[in-house]
Amino acid sequence: MSSFSEALRVHGLQSVIRKVMASEQVSADKELQDYHNHFAADLQEVEKLSRLLNAMKRGEVTEELLEACPDLAEASKKNEKLKYRKKILQGSLEKQSAANSSRGINVPMTKSAIKRDNEKAVGAPDDKKPKKDAKSKEKTGGAAPKQARKYDYVVVEDYGSSILGRLSDLFRKAIKEAFPSLDVALLMAETSNPTFGDYQCNSAMPIAAKLKATGVSKRPGDVAKEIFAKIPSNTEFLEKVEVMPAGFINIFLKKDYIKKQIWSIAKKGLELPKISKRRVLVDFSSPNIAKEMHVGHLRSTIIGDSICRLLEAVGFDVLRVNHIGDWGTQFGMLIAHLYDRYPDFETKLPEISDLQAFYKESKKRFDEDEVFKKRAYECVVKLQSYEPNFVKAWETICDVSKKYNQYVYDRLDIKIEDFGESFYQDKMLNLVDSIKKTHPGVLREDEGRQIMFPTGCEVPLTVVKSDGGFTYDTSDLAALNYRINQLKVDWAIYVVDAGQSLHLETVYAAGRDFGWYDESVKRVEHVAFGLVLGEDRKKFKTRSGETVRLLDLLDEGVKRAEKSLQEKGRHEVMNKEELEAARDAVAYGCIKYADLSHTRTQDYVFSFDRMLDDRGNTAVYLLYAYARIRSIVRTSGVSEAELSDYLNKTSVLPLDHPAEMNLAKQILKLSDCVLQVLDSLMLHPLCDFVYQLATQFHDFYNECYVIDKRGDKTEIHFHRLALCDVTANTMATCFKILGIREVSKM
Ligand SMILES: NC(=[NH2+])NCCC[C@H](N)C(=O)O
């Protein structure tokens, strides 16, 4: 790794790298498209882009790159300042690695830094959050090796209506036939300019480059011709395929194919791609007991739930898991405090309305009162040896906390099952024993603690604390083991904030070291997300600087949604129940959609004003559009039976108007989009899809009469009614995946 990126990493600036890499993806796609559209005129621009990409890949900071990326320029400045600090740190690190070199272990951290990082939640009574720990790890130490993404993990059995899926199969086969010895990734893309067709195959350029590397010189245009020659001329969906001199292959779809597909969806319903059934576990939400869920947990809840919905929709066997922080020495002080404040807790569930305050009070006592502190420690010992009274006290605190969380889940339609850290207590004991037996020497003594350095990791996991207790690291190790070896999951997804990336990657590396899973067979991955910021772009807080209570946040959303419906006069046309349903759908839908429509890995600014704007890319805009389409069908006077009668009598929908055809093509892209989201676990392309669909519908409705009233003559265009129906059903499918409640009246 270059010294530049190393310095960035050491000083916790990975997020900048991530941003740069994210924009690299976009630029890379765009580069190809732009090259095609303007390749003669804009060759210089293309060369510049390519230089920028190469510089990014190499981790080199060129003047040009700094100019193009203000974020990077800023980071580079900071980096200069931090270099000095790094030098000092390095001095002490060198001493440390010398001490460990006899075992071949690379330790880039001071012992005190290690201690600071690992004495945490499951063990420590000192209110250290795992999140903080993970962050400080990132700031002070190195990285865990990332495992390679397995893009072919999801085995698609049936593409549903995915055109890209079918085209990809066709072109993959053609390339294999034309160039049997080459192994190249297929590049297929939608075109934005219809003169170049509907889709494009851009594989000829990388193939030509590969051939060149093996000493064969062939122009991309000629490579493209050879691929073209292997494409069958009589497919049911290809109208025309043309080869551009630069090597791009333009693909035009048969209009009849599209008309037939839409008819089939209208008649039989929408079919999403189907995958081979596999078991996947999604670890999401996962708040900590006695501390209220915060907006970070809200993000995890929303994103995790939507990922589950997507996986369920295509046929996975999904386990929705809440890895709640319900274990550890902090329970000592909470139990001791519960005994004092609510002595009758055993017979009556205490009304602790503000659990956060209860936590703070007990923490204050723990810090200031030595007698209380001693009692708290005794409580932990009694709890961990499962003394009934203490288990009851612990359960009481958990119940109060879970009851609160359940309000949030109910309001947001979230289904999730608890497998908290406490679930792993006996498993942690067994795990440590078995590691010692099967991997002797892996756990090493460090100031009384037992730590391990998984392969390639520079920051250790603390497996046993000096007082014999376990940590957040231990419970995550036990959870990973349990998930893979007991629950037999094929895919484990951890929806956790990006700050915990190092912690999770280190745990995964340990799992691979222990031989729990083979990366080519199972996929274990951290689905990271950025922070929630306030409109001032600082950490999201109340005006008085407190953590925002999620229930207050949801209430505020409901209040604002109600106001906006009132302002539109909806109360005059809807009854009370309809109004309430619309209000809740808008409020919760907007909060979810605002989160999901942003690039997951980036920070996002929480703004009620923006998320409730009915003219933008928001849930409220979509919900209005959806209700409008449903009402067109409802008020047409055509019954379901009449419509299905019409569909039975035909086998294509005559979608001859360009606006009809555009809308139809967009509908058919849903399956492609679902496959894309399945691969990246980024939900925003699905939001973009449904938004685009709503705007295409708008264009269609502006240009085409569904019900044509001229004088006293009324003509009903049945195929357009069917198209309305298909559009609304497609939107409803997206809403379902995004967790947005649909309402047919708004
Ligand atoms: N397996 C996991 N570590 N899941 C995420 C747990 C999140 C943790 N309870 C927190 O609030 O930060």
From TrEMBL:
Subcellular location: Cytoplasm, Cytosol
CDD domains: ArgRS_core
Keyword Cell membrane: no
PROSITE patterns according to UniProt: AA_TRNA_LIGASE_I
Enzyme class: ligase
UniProt region (Disordered), positions on chain: 99-144
Gene Ontology terms: biological process: arginyl-tRNA aminoacylation
Keyword line: Aminoacyl-tRNA synthetase, ATP-binding, Cytoplasm, Ligase, Nucleotide-binding, Protein biosynthesis
An annotated GO cellular component: cytosol
Domain Arginyl tRNA synthetase N-terminal residue range list: 165-253
Catalytic activity line of the entry: tRNA(Arg) + L-arginine + ATP = L-arginyl-tRNA(Arg) + AMP + diphosphate
GO MF annotation, one: arginine-tRNA ligase activity
Keyword Ion transport in record: no
Domain DALR anticodon binding: 622-746
Basic and acidic residues bias locations: 114-140
PANTHER family the UniProt entry points to: ARGININE--TRNA LIGASE, CYTOPLASMIC, ARGINYL-TRNA SYNTHETASE
Family per record: Belongs to the class-I aminoacyl-tRNA synthetase family.
Name of the featured protein: Probable arginine--tRNA ligase, cytoplasmic
Organism (species): Caenorhabditis auriculariae
Highest classification ranks of the organism: Eukaryota, Metazoa, Ecdysozoa, Nematoda, Chromadorea
